[in-house]
Amino acid sequence: MTLKATEDGPATVVATGAAQRSTSSPVDVTANLTIHADGSASMTLPGASVTLTPRRTSPHSGGEYEIRELLGMGGMGVVNRARQASLDRAIVVKSIRPEYAGRAEAQEKFITEALATGSLDHPNVVPVHDMGVAQDGSLFYVMKEVRGRNWREVIRDLTEMENIDILLRVCDAIAFAHDRGIIHRDIKPENVMLGDFGEVLVMDWGLAAAVEPNAKATHITTINACAGTPSFMAPEMARAWRTK
């Protein structure tokens, strides 16, 4: 396989190999894959060609996801309430803050969060519906809108049994994630959302890590450093941090 590219032109991959026809012996086939500056790609095979265009959807007015209201801003993320045009429903769009959009570390954390959350189909993990690239090139992902408050805001107002019930449902979500080879690494009341209709959802999987090389989420960050909030950190993680 060879790769040909110019400084400002498209890159072309030329792959040559053997192909097996159903009624004859193998024949040599050369395929040309050209990647264009706009992200589209075209492939030419003997007697056929195809053009591939990456799906780009805009989380702005006029696109599939129409931003309606700013819900909050975190360390590196922006969360907006939006409308999904095709299904005419309220959803939440999370994106990277503009000042961090070009940083590789921020992009890795953002993708980790989307992949980890999206791979965990569980009643106590917030559902992720989509992930994409906006017209300006920034990353975003779409999740279910949950109206309510985080656990920290109400924990002192709830009864002991109510808090235990919430804790057990958080444990269900974390056990499910562990079974899939993913650990959250930042479990704390602020990252547990209590919906107005009884939902208990574990949020903010940005520090999630894969504990097995063959875990389903193979692109999620592997454990190679301490992470989490010190006052809520697992003892073994805190001990490792102190010895670094």
Describe the overall structure.
It is a single chain. With 244 residues, the chain is an alpha+beta fold. Helices cover 20% and strands 34% of the residues. The strands form four sheets. A five-stranded antiparallel beta sheet has the order 1-2-3-4-5, with no helix packed on it. The longest helix has 20 residues, at 160-179. It is globular, with a radius of gyration of 23 Å. The two termini are 44 Å apart. Residues 1-29, 50-56 and 214-220 have low confidence and may be disordered.
Count of beta strands: 15
| Main sheet properties | 5 strands, antiparallel
Low-pLDDT regions: 1-29, 50-56, 214-220
SSE series: EEEEEEEEHEEEHHEEEEH
Break the fold down into its secondary structure elements and pairings.
Layout: E1 2-5, E2 11-19, E3 27-35, E4 41-45, E5 48-52, E6 65-73, E7 77-84, E8 89-96, H1 104-118, E9 128-133, E10 139-144, E11 148-150, H2 151-154, H3 160-179, E12 182-183, E13 192-195, E14 200-202, E15 209-210, H4 235-243
Antiparallel strand pairs: 1-2, 2-3, 3-4, 4-5, 6-7, 7-8, 8-10, 9-10, 11-13, 12-15, 13-14
